[in-house]
Amino acid sequence: MPYSEKQKEYTIKYLGKLKEIRFRVRPEEFEEYQKAAEKAGYSSMRKFYLDAIQEKLDRIN
Hints:
The protein is an all-alpha fold.
C-alpha cells in the first residue's frame, strides 16, 4: 500500500510533538547493552534505554 500524502501529513504533525534523544556508542558498548537488554527480556533497545533513564531519575529524585 503506497504512503499517502495525508499519512505523511499526520506523521509530520505527530513527530513535531516529540523531542529526539540521540547518542553514539562504540560497537563493543552497544553489544554489551544489547546483551543486557536481551538478558532482561526487553524486546527493544528503546525500551531498555528509557527504563534505564527512568531508573536513574527515580534514584535522583
